[in-house]
Design goal:
Elements: H1 6-9, E1 21-24, E2 40-43, H2 45-48, H3 51-65, H4 71-84, H5 92-99, E3 108-109, E4 113-114, H6 120-138, E5 146-147, E6 150-152, H7 159-167, E7 174-176, E8 181-187, E9 195-201, E10 205-214, E11 219-220
Antiparallel strand pairs: 1-2, 3-4, 5-10, 6-10, 7-8, 8-9, 9-10, 10-11
Helix pairs in contact: 3-4
Bound molecules: zinc ion.
Length: 235
């Protein structure tokens, strides 16, 4: 986390308050030291709190995934192994596995689709990816009525989610590092705040995420089958 004068950073990408820090999206622990220009958004202190835990968490996940097709994954994994040599690292693996257990309070979205992502920390990281990257690409923040359901790729669900997951693969990917992180995105042509995202970590770990209008009686989600989308940033 680097600190600068608030006036240099502008408003927080998440809440609009004056930003005081750089919040990396995804956490910079995902990348090897050598990677320049790790992507970030301006953030206030409260919205950025917990970032160092996100960092650690993603670093540990990279080990569990066993990705060896990305130089970033290899270097981050080696760093993790070195950290295990410290005495205080006892029980670290157990803690990591526990962090991947299902959320108890999984939200059920209309249509009976359980969109919860296992692991509270991973869900938090994914939320920030959607909100942070939306801000980076459009300069806008989501109104409070929008929610961010997400799921692992390949998870069974409603046919709309399966169709979106398949269709977004043909969208261009923006890649960072040596396949460390990539995103694909589609924005709705009718509602700029409806979007569909596909995130990939180290080329092996894949997550679908959405911004949806969630007002109890009203639930709207982008449908890529209806060509209600634009691949280009809205800026
Ligand atoms: Zn904030």
């Amino acid at each position: 986390m680097s600190r600068r004068r608030a006036r240099d950073l502008g408003p927080c990408a998440y809440c609009g308050q004056p930003a005081t820090t750089e919040d990396h999206v995804p956490p910079r622990g995902m990348f090897s030291k050598r990677m320049p220009n790790k992507p970030w958004v301006p953030s206030c202190d409260p919205c950025n709190s917990g970032a160092s835990k996100d960092d650690e968490y993603m670093q540990r996940l990279s080990m569990l995934w066993g990705a060896d097709c990305s130089q970033d994954a290899i270097e981050v994994g080696e760093k993790f192994m070195r950290s295990l040599e410290y005495p205080e690292a006892k029980g670290l693996q157990t803690e990591v596995r526990r962090s991947l257990s299902p959320l108890e309070d999984e939200k059920l979205f209309p249509g009976g689709i359980n969109m919860a992502l296992k692991g509270e920390r991973l869900a938090r990281v994914t939320d920030k990816l959607v909100r942070g990257w939306f801000f980076r690409l459009t300069g806008k923040r989501f109104p409070a009525s929008y929610g961010f359901p997400k799921h692992m790729c390949g998870q069974k669900g409603h046919s709309l989610y399966a169709a979106n997951e398949s269709l977004i693969e043909s969208f261009p990917a923006t890649v960072f590092g040596d396949k460390a992180f990539s995103y694909r995105v589609a924005f709705s042509a009718n509602d700029e705040f409806l979007s569909c995202w596909r995130f990939e970590f180290y080329g092996v770990f894949k997550i679908m995420a959405y911004s949806v209008l969630d007002q109890g009686d009203q639930f709207r989600i982008i449908d890529l089958r209806s060509h209600d989308q634009t691949a280009a940033p809205l800026k």
